[in-house]
Write a structure and sequence with these properties.
Low-confidence stretches: none
Order of helices and strands: EHHEHEHEHEHEHEEHHEEHEHHEH
Distance between the termini: 33 Å
Structural class: alpha/beta
Helix content: 25-40%
Number of strands: 12
Strand content: 5-15%
């Protein structure tokens, strides 16, 4: 059976360049980067090369890139590290109600610890308004965390407004941006975005799972969450997962032209949108101006799980939202005040450079069949 993998916001297929680099490091350049012998020095060169590659794509200095186990750890390190480092300067943390769970749950834990956490709701377009952000920030705000691209809807958030709010309100805040879904797809330059901290992940760009990075501006300071070594400038100590890090660097180096890839993704999204018009009861949840790699829609009356199983039996793989939610109802669509049935019937399609028009056509054929044959809930 032909497979159409359309769940690339959950994870991507590792590209050959990344897989080959990881294997080479595991079998040839396998020393500990902290060791002083020849094998250690070879490994250290691999580590430096990957750091330079990630820094180049972020237009930052290599020393501002700290490798982590992925986006979730990078987000946790950013939120807890910033909150604890600046708690003497204030108590307010401003974020949004549609963040990835690794940010949202970290913020709620900080609320339980006594911080004043503000969760900004999205508008009908899946974006948080700049005015709401300005209104929430005060001179006691120590951290603002806003994602660049929403992982369920593809909506692009006004992250640059966070820095303007800091200046306007004279807040002692650090600005964190979760750029996991944007990295490698649109230009992500922390300095231009006004970010002090920014999180990225390898497995969203055809790199290996288990590795990501946190950008930390050299002018900013946060506290570590782990102790016990000199690695990563003591901010994230422990022997580096060098094969994964090297694979991350190779995946970055293998990225094609971003503008050309967005054009291809937009063509696939438009083909899908056109096809959905011929299927009754479909409601599109993603905004028209969102990142074209993600399209979220609901098939009225058919629960996501039911449709997912039907599609998988036809070799088509999509999701019902964030993979980290493991099937739980979308907090993003809940925050947008959608009706319950629209939420429980939502599907997310996400493209990568390996997808083709044939993948879209296969999805549409399976969707149409499911819409006509599957039992509907009311």
């Amino acid at each position: 059976m032909r497979e159409a993998y359309l769940d690339n916001s959950a994870t991507t297929r590792v590209c050959p360049e990344a897989a080959e680099r990881a294997v080479r490091v595991m079998t040839e350049t396998y020393g500990n980067p902290s060791s002083l012998h020849t094998k250690g020095l070879e490994a250290e060169r691999e580590l430096k090369s990957a750091r330079v590659s990630v820094a180049r794509l972020l237009s930052c200095e290599p020393r501002e890139v700290y490798f982590t186990s992925g986006g979730t750890e990078a987000n946790n390190l950013a939120l807890f590290g910033a909150a604890y480092a600046r708690r003497r300067l204030g108590n307010r943390i401003v974020t949004t109600a549609i963040e990835h769970s690794s940010v949202l749950e970290s913020a709620l834990e900080l609320r339980r610890q006594g911080f004043d956490v503000v969760l900004l709701p999205p508008g009908a377009d899946g974006r948080v308004s700049e005015q709401a952000l300005f209104d929430a920030v005060d001179d006691q705000t120590i951290l603002i965390s806003v994602m660049l691209v929403n992982n369920e809807l593809g909506s692009i958030q006004p992250v640059e407004a966070a820095r303007r709010a800091v200046r306007l309100k004279k807040a002692p805040a650090l600005v964190h941006v979760d750029a996991v879904q944007a990295f490698g797809k649109i230009p992500v330059r922390p300095a231009k975005l006004g970010a002090d901290l920014l999180s990225v992940s390898a497995h969203k760009i055809h790199g290996p799972k288990g590795v990501g990075a946190l950008y930390l501006a050299k002018s900013a300071r946060i506290l570590p969450r782990v102790f016990g070594g000199e690695q990563e400038q003591r901010l994230r100590p422990g022997t580096e997962a060098l094969p994964l890090i090297a694979g991350f660097g190779a995946a970055v180096d293998a990225l094609p032209d971003q503008a050309e890839e967005r054009t291809q993704a937009a063509a696939l999204r438009d083909r899908l949108l056109a096809g959905l018009e011929g299927i009754g009861g479909v409601r599109v949840n993603s905004p028209a101006d969102g990142l074209p790699y993600i399209l979220n829609f609901s098939v009225d009356g058919i629960r996501s799980e039911t449709m997912l199983h039907h599609l998988a039996s036809r070799g088509v793989y999509v999701s019902s939202g964030s993979a980290c939610a493991k099937g739980k109802q979308s907090h993003v669509l809940e925050a947008m005040d959608y009706p319950a049935m629209r939420i429980v019937s939502a599907l997310r399609v996400s493209f990568s450079r390996y997808n083709t028009p044939e993948d879209v056509d296969q999805l549409l054929a399976a969707l149409k069949e499911g819409a006509n044959t599957l039992a509907r809930s009311r």
